[in-house]
């Protein structure tokens, strides 16, 4: 049966040879840190502290990082053995069969479509907020998505997604160079916030560090911390965008583990530091419903100029995230087209050996979602789809180990403490998924039913021809 038919490793390797291997460890670190330290670090810590965990929100970040870390180690091993475009989709197709690969890839596709739209919309909101004091105000019809506060199209979201697609269309090396420049600015802004914020911390804001649990609201205690993990987890999914570009890596056996693990470690340190400083500057309850807590905290502490600078650099960070997601999502669409599971035009390369059709398809779909339709209710679907792919990858390590040195190459980096850590990565991802709200699970279920219908009605039949 096609669903269980395993993809040929040699065919995948040969199919991706036309990619130019130009991305270095520095490029991957920039793309990884840029994608992970993006919208989430400037928006989520305060809201999760106020809604779920109080100062204990730092434990939410650390627990989410622990689960993401287990998965990242699995990703690092997979990418050294199979440096293919499409990351989890291609790997699971080789290890378990094309049907399972399609499910994992379809899950990631939801992440990229929605995440590109989500960040584009966040970029628009922050830019409008930054320019408002200068007297710049867009007409409502151009400032908001269709049907939201008199809006027809979010023109800034449309343009920034289009610009990111143009840069990726020019080549992965251009995206890597731009990311390196912008990520330095972003990390500098985060460090500046930490240094300045430390000077205005009030120790009383840390007490109690883990507020008592309120069963009526779900706030406080370990339950509140774990609820925070499910909300925060989307902050750490950026390392998948590194793996998706492994076909374009210089010496992937070394650059992939360094890029994946290195970017996650940097992100964990910065997330924890920002969170601790933020809840120490003001009472956590003050951040309720605040979508820009970092800038607000600085402004309330008398650092209005630095607040504006940090907000401006946050925009640069969101742009890096867009580049990383467009790169990764377009390579996933290319892989689907390459294998005939979606129209083969998506798997065609242009004269510069780039998957141009994949880039523009991703950009157009994301523009439609982010610029024309309200999509906030789909936000948790980003985490839902990714967590399902993560579960497949951690389980895939067991199959990978059995086949290394036989029909698959030996890994140059191996996940430590095998077979325990892959199991912990799977269980951790499952628990985080279970903690998502009912709507996220429902919408992800609908998305997968659509994906399975497309597979049997189109992809499976086309692949047999």
From TrEMBL:
<feature type="transmembrane region" description="Helical">
    <location>
        <begin position="260"/>
        <end position="281"/>
    </location>
</feature>
<feature type="transmembrane region" description="Helical">
    <location>
        <begin position="309"/>
        <end position="334"/>
    </location>
</feature>
<feature type="transmembrane region" description="Helical">
    <location>
        <begin position="418"/>
        <end position="436"/>
    </location>
</feature>
<dbReference type="GO" id="GO:0016020">
    <property type="term" value="C:membrane"/>
</dbReference>
<feature type="transmembrane region" description="Helical">
    <location>
        <begin position="221"/>
        <end position="239"/>
    </location>
</feature>
<keyword id="KW-0812">Transmembrane</keyword>
<feature type="transmembrane region" description="Helical">
    <location>
        <begin position="88"/>
        <end position="105"/>
    </location>
</feature>
<dbReference type="InterPro" id="IPR002293">
    <property type="entry name" value="AA/rel_permease1"/>
</dbReference>
<feature type="transmembrane region" description="Helical">
    <location>
        <begin position="181"/>
        <end position="201"/>
    </location>
</feature>
<dbReference type="GO" id="GO:0015171">
    <property type="term" value="F:amino acid transmembrane transporter activity"/>
</dbReference>
<protein>
    <submittedName>
        <fullName>Amino acid/polyamine/organocation transporter, APC superfamily</fullName>
    </submittedName>
</protein>
<keyword id="KW-1133">Transmembrane helix</keyword>
<dbReference type="Pfam" id="PF13520">
    <property type="entry name" value="AA_permease_2"/>
</dbReference>
<feature type="transmembrane region" description="Helical">
    <location>
        <begin position="28"/>
        <end position="46"/>
    </location>
</feature>
<keyword id="KW-0472">Membrane</keyword>
<feature type="transmembrane region" description="Helical">
    <location>
        <begin position="354"/>
        <end position="373"/>
    </location>
</feature>
<feature type="transmembrane region" description="Helical">
    <location>
        <begin position="442"/>
        <end position="458"/>
    </location>
</feature>
<keyword id="KW-0813">Transport</keyword>
<feature type="transmembrane region" description="Helical">
    <location>
        <begin position="379"/>
        <end position="398"/>
    </location>
</feature>
<feature type="transmembrane region" description="Helical">
    <location>
        <begin position="151"/>
        <end position="169"/>
    </location>
</feature>
<feature type="transmembrane region" description="Helical">
    <location>
        <begin position="58"/>
        <end position="76"/>
    </location>
</feature>
